[in-house]
# Entry
Amino acid sequence: MSSEDMHRFGADQLHEQIVAVLRAWGMPGEPAAATATVMVETDLSGVDSHGVSMLMMYEKLRSEDRLKLDAVPRVVRDAPAFAVVDAGAGLGHPAGLHALELAIGKAAVCGIGAVAVGNSHHLGALGHYVRSAAQRGLVALMTTTTRTPVVAALGGTTPILGTNPIAFAAPRAGGGELVVDMSTSVVAMNKVKAYALSGRDLPVGWVSDRSGDPVTDAALAYSLLTTHAATLTPLGGSSSETGGHKGFGLSLMVNVLSAAFSGGALPFDDADSDNLGHFVLVIDPTRVAEGGETARYVDDLVRLLVRDEPHVILPGGPEAAARAARGRDGIPIPENLLEQLRGICGRAGTEMILTPLA
Amino acid sequence: MSSEDMHRFGADQLHEQIVAVLRAWGMPGEPAAATATVMVETDLSGVDSHGVSMLMMYEKLRSEDRLKLDAVPRVVRDAPAFAVVDAGAGLGHPAGLHALELAIGKAAVCGIGAVAVGNSHHLGALGHYVRSAAQRGLVALMTTTTRTPVVAALGGTTPILGTNPIAFAAPRAGGGELVVDMSTSVVAMNKVKAYALSGRDLPVGWVSDRSGDPVTDAALAYSLLTTHAATLTPLGGSSSETGGHKGFGLSLMVNVLSAAFSGGALPFDDADSDNLGHFVLVIDPTRVAEGGETARYVDDLVRLLVRDEPHVILPGGPEAAARAARGRDGIPIPENLLEQLRGICGRAGTEMILTPLA
# Structure
């Protein structure tokens, strides 16, 4: 079934459905609504792997008592421009939003503010958080560790590092934002999964087995990755000649920023929670530059990049296009995901309210 | 002449020589000594392209009256954890060091501190700055814009962005630092130059002409790059399939951080100075984490990466090896560079004191 054949659903109804499930799982109303907003925005932006489709993973973590839906994020260290938050083994979304607001408040006073979050779980797509800051005129950078060790050190074959993403956003004068949101591996895990679902072979250079040989069967590759029996190449490829040491270095940087201040897990820690770590950095340009200068610079730079260049795709461009299309036509959900959502609703004892748009 | 045949020089003597030239050019004693230290440390670390070999470029910029050797960096905006510095069209080294000290002071009070520098010039290798912060127990991140537009937007053919490097360092418990220092292009310009000097062909995928066709003749590629007639591929390659959009996004992030707060130049600005912008960020772990926790995390992570992996090259590893070898055996300087340095000394009216180690 291609995405054109899928049923489509309104963002508001999807929000309501997610809130109902989270509340049935014991999450209070306010964080449930905030979490659902992040998830729906992620689906609206076309990042299907990080939106409502994550509910199955959350259900599994909850059933294992690793994920505490009623956790309240709590500041455990506080300096004027930096705080550390303990997410209490809860979902990453409310913790990430809490950290973002804290960092914004600190940046308003100090020019810059940062918050490291520990003892957390999956928080969706980082792009949502930094974009929301840029919509408020702020510059934001965010990183997180991820759950499954898949990337090896350059020259090694043991999967140690996650796909460790980094996101950055800045406001553009005249409206809109520059948004960068990327894993530091050559592709994110969901891309491998998407190839598997559509039966396409992976390009050589994405996934290698533990002997270093390429794995191009996407379904096999995904299965090997999730069981630590294969590695995902860092951004830049598997050799220094193509810059693989740079992707490896970026992944280390993300890992340190995200977890080294907040007591986040090392890879393969056998903790009670996933203990993911996040890092949020916010700069308030009104405190450090002439009024509007920063947003004007960003806009001028972007205009320079696309001038006379019809084929340029700006970072964040595909997501903005998806938001326009899905905001108008609804969010496509494949039948197998709908079926899984029905199961979740049933087990949670809440009604399945999703009905396709006409 | 291979590097084994080159004459080698002691670091202290090289430092003295650089100070003499900078002072003859009108730079006061303290910034001259500090600049020479950065340059010699860069040569010691094996990053030959960014050390003493840059004196020719500085001489040229000075002769064009673009570079002001007697400039004094000056804080023009100041918030508790963020400042903006005007480098006064001076060399980037004293401005970068000034910014680093400012950021360190702010981090000691606020947990984090950042400084953006504008109206600056080349500042050497970023790795030196962040490593020196990590040696003081701090975590540091640094970015800069660069002089020559060489990288196009993904899908475009006009060179707009510089090689826009990013560097990151963190202390390791038990001594040593994790240091990442990388351009956000597939290779730095100096790598293309090095291939040209040694007569090797470039790998396909590094440089393309304005039609998008690969240029593998290294001398031709370097010449085309310096005249905006070719482009250097972003980290990740020239297609989204290999992650080229990620290197492009990182380059944009570096450009915005480095220049958007400090009034740095847009590419192709025809300003009086190069007007490069730098960005320095420092986190003081003692303000935000349990004592020693951050350095312990970094060390544990690095140990995990190399455990049972004999072939792993850690970021910063080659530079550390070069520092050990060159600290012992001296810094190799090829004859043609020595000849150029003789010319510089002659024109500056200062003695050439460099004498090879026995």
Notes: The longest strand of chain A covers residues 112-120. Chain A has twelve helices and eleven strands. Chain A touches chain B through 88 residues (CB under 8 Å). The two ends of chain A are 18 Å apart (CA to CA).
